[in-house]
Design brief:
By secondary structure, the chain is of the alpha+beta class. The protein has helices spanning 25-34, 42-45, 60-71, 75-85, 93-96; strands at residues 4-10, 17-22, 50-57. The protein contains 5 helices and 3 strands; from the N terminus they run ββααβααα.
């Protein structure tokens, strides 16, 4: 059964939040990590590769709807959501995958 995720990442200073949706959370976090510093994407430009929140859905349309909902929220409401499950805003990257990723990890997806 397919699984889809809505997620929030932040930079190391926890000053920027990025909300996204994916069907492969590990791969997407690695992509954000590999693109850090890139001006071609918001997450890359602001080094948002630290996963601090995610939700799982059985259907893409539900994850997309939730992503849009969260993106419309102000920062305080997003912070409250994150604080419900991750009050210390600890990076969840090492919980969902081997972290940091090996240089060739993208070829595994």
């Amino acid at each position: 059964m397919p699984t889809y995720f809505t997620y929030i990442t932040t930079n190391s200073n926890k000053t920027v939040l990025y909300t996204g949706m994916t069907n492969n959370l590990e791969r997407r976090i690695v992509e954000h990590f590999r693109n850090k510093g890139s001006k071609k994407s918001f997450a890359g430009k602001f080094y948002c590769y630290n996963l601090i929140y995610f939700e799982e859905f059985p259907r893409a349309m539900h994850a997309i709807k939730r992503e849009k909902e969260i993106k419309d929220w102000n920062r305080a409401k997003k912070e409250a959501l994150i604080n419900q499950t991750n009050p210390g805003w600890k990076s969840l990257n090492p919980i969902i995958m081997e972290w940091p990723p090996h240089p060739d990890v993208q070829s595994n997806y």
